Amino acid sequence: MLEVQEIQVYYGKIHALKGISLQVDKGEIVALLGNNGAGKTTTLKTISALLRPRSGRVLLEGEPIHDLPPHEIVARGVAHAPEGRKIFNRLTVTENLEMGAYLRSDAAIAEDMERVFSLFPRLKERRNQVAGTLSGGEQQMLAIGRALMPRPRILLMDEPSMGLAPILVEQIFKTVEDINRQGTTILLVEQNAAMALSIAGRGYVLETGRIALEGSAAELAGNPEVRRAYLGEA
User: With 90 as the cut, is the pLDDT of residue 85 above it?
Assistant: First the structure.
């Protein structure tokens, strides 16, 4: 469904991604693991066309999308729930969700908003509340919900558990599984490797801009290097 082929990405003279290649098939949850600075967020931004690769390609169902503007990427069915949430703090919960559907003019927007509220009942309770006054967990729910409003075929999720209490982390990951079961393919960037691998089918490990390891979630979870570096085992 989604293919990243040998992308090279620079920040000025800094070589951030050094020939990254990965694949996400329809219906999968694929985890992208790595330490800070490994290139995880840069990979997602490149897929979303927020960054341009100097070389290489990004394909969606075989069609190149790396030269398209970001709004066209969304229109093609790729949505991005970014690191740090990036919600519209001065807008209400409902208005944030409406912003997620800004490319749409069909009659099903209200239906999809109700879908978000069914996934996150707390957002429904706060639908008229200004987003900047929500708790961190509620803001993360809103960021995910907003990314669902364009009805994406594939959802890019960047550190959904960052800064959340353990009980909320479990809730967020359960919801990620629910979203996937409802038909949305997911590429998940996450530092909580144990949680990510518990719900993913496959994964990749990034180190300093390169793919260091790839395999099934079970293979990565059992890899001694992964267990030592990302799962906190000696």
Answer: no
